[in-house]
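Example record for the data management plan.
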Amino acid sequence: MTPEEMESRIVRYGDLKPCKTAFIDAHTPGSDQKENFTIIGGGVSESPDQHVHIAIPHGFNIGAAGQPPKCRNSLHSHRTAEVFFVLSGRWRFFWGRYGTAGEVTLEKGDIINIPTGIFRGFENIGTDYGMIMAILGGDDAGGGVVWAPQVIQDAQDHGLVLAETGKLYDTKQGQALPDGVKPMPIMSDEDANRYPSPTTAEVVPHYVARYWDMVALADRKPVLVIGENGMLRDRPGFEVGLLTRGASTTDMHSHDRPSVLMPVTGHWRVVWDGGETTLAPGDTMSVPENLNHTAYPSMTGDAALFHIVATDDPAGPTATDLN
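Corresponding structural encoding:
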């Protein structure tokens, strides 16, 4: 594969195209400044304005959320895995029926594998614009987002209506539901209350990995962060590994399916049969299946890179879920 061909499979941080109307809470005060990015796969955006950078199926989706300080993402749930790692900023993740059951603060490089089947949200509690990168299980990302009832009700008060088709309509812009299309039904309180509300002590030890713990374990060989035998033992339909300077090698290897490289710190030289490039934090690279390649730091200093590849496990609830 030539460098020009490979460049079409690389999304540079500076080239990311945001959507500011991706979800139903886009006009709700406190959530109206967030930006959504769909990097690989169709994602779960409810807006036709969402730009998809790479549409090639990988068995999972890659996206990102960018938010200024004090901006939050409203309570929602997914039917497949949702994994985040912090690229920049300081973030509070919270969960439960009303977002009060538990919470954890994550900083640069930390990763959380949020259990399926619980309402969750997150907010930037740092002092600057922050970015979190997301991995969603399955090519269709579980069919979309399940919103807590109060989120849909609040959105209606600010002009946004979600159709039963999963598409957003903005009444402030004169949009209305097409004939024959009904609004998305609002979940009853009875159904919403059936969603688990695990405590912080139940979630954090099993679903959160700290950056420096991962780096320490990856001192001499890559560490499996999420996977059947990983630090966070789960089988969400993909595996997440961490590579550091000490664990990197110039030896080439390949996978029988596409894989993704996402630096969190440092600059990484990626070499493949046909060319090479350099990735920086925030860049995302899709490596084709059966292509020999390797990655190693190209400069001195701290360097860590997440590696994601799909598995044959179903992209749905797993044995470790708290439901």
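Summary line stored alongside the record: The helical segments are 3-7, 149-157, 189-192, 200-207, 211-217.
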